[in-house]
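Reagents: none. Just compute today. 23S rRNA (Uracil-5-)-methyltransferase RumA.
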Amino acid sequence: MTATIPKGFHPEPFSYHQELELDIDALSNAGDGIGRVDGWVVFVPFALPGDRVKARVWRNDRNYSSADLVEVLRPSPDRVEPVCRLFGTCGGCQYQHFSYGRQLFWKTRQVADLLRLQAGLELPVNPAIASPREYHYRSKITPHFDKPKEGGKPAIGFLKAGSRREVVDVPQCPIAMECINEVLPMARKSVYQAVARFKRGATILLRASEGGVITNNNAVACEKVGTLEFHFLAGDFFQNNPFILPLFTDYVARQASMDGEEFLVDAYCGSGLFALSLAEKFKKVLGVEVSETSADWARSNARSNGISHAEFLAADAGAIFAQVDFPAEKTAVVIDPPRKGCSMEFLTQLFAFGPGKVVYVSCNPATQIRDLAEFDKAGYAVTAVQPFDLFPQTKHLECVVTLKKKN
Ligand SMILES: C[S@@+](CC[C@H](N)C(=O)[O-])C[C@H]1O[C@@H](n2cnc3c(N)ncnc32)[C@H](O)[C@@H]1O
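Predicted 3D structure written out:
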């Protein structure tokens, strides 16, 4: 049977559903294997560096093609058995079939490639710091369901790999903490019982907290990081891999304070993770966070942890430096923005303030590296690039870039 060719399919260099045999030699930061046919780049999800594969083309773009994996003809020596039976169907994980050491190697390399190709910076990148747990590390999951058209039980889980709509039913999730998996069957049962009352569908929350799992966005969650205890609303932002957090905050603390900085601004501070974890190294600390509830919890976390030299403002980070009276050359600014990166307003007023040190933390190296071009223009030099693997088995990674103002 011949496949119907989608409208708009560009037939060069390959015909629709043409099957190719190719060697995979790299991994894109979207998690796809990269191979070449006569020099033409082909992206193949779930194919790994070292594989020889058969792949079926479904799209030709201006300078690359996309193809589905049909068969692994010769497996990469780095392939391992995935833990989850839904691996390859569920869109949550991309790398369960890749040895953890090689996941880390490629995440490090992706950062170096982005720096070179996107920002024109040839910089040494430290090897990605491993998560102490390769599985059962996530402290929060948010499975989704759509209301079934014909009644019956909905699929409750995550988007299907390669789909923007279809949900895969996920009864257990091996990257979620064990306590979450214990509660998941009960949470799913509650959805089945209530599904008739939903108009369309919904997303449910399971957030691990000291002493249990929370399923209500407005309940207060509690997490210990090193010697500190953080409270925050379960539906607000908090980092999702508690096992790596002490390594992560220790590294940011060292980077922010190693040149004798005395003052700290934590922009995009959430409930105070960096501001409070780093506070003992600074004379004064200011955190800024747009979510009022997170900023309230940051203040309360400062009090409950006995930290009296940290203040928190509920405000847009884009308009904060006019109010900062710290001496700029002795100030370190930690930036940890959402995935879209920093706004131009934020960067403009940050550069006008001109702190001696900036430690830029990001869960999206693509926008982080885009922003580095602005730091370069403003007279900052990168002194360290350190990826952290907060998200094993997935394409996601966190990266910490340290910048110093040039004299
Ligand atoms: C990636 S989270 C980091 C939070 C915190 N650093 C942590 O590690 O827990 C980004 C935070 O930025 C906040 N945010 C988003 N836009 C903001 C803005 N324009 N100004 C200040 N904070 C903002 C979000 O509410 C969120 O808490």
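The chain has a mean pLDDT of 96.
Action item: order primers for follow-up constructs.
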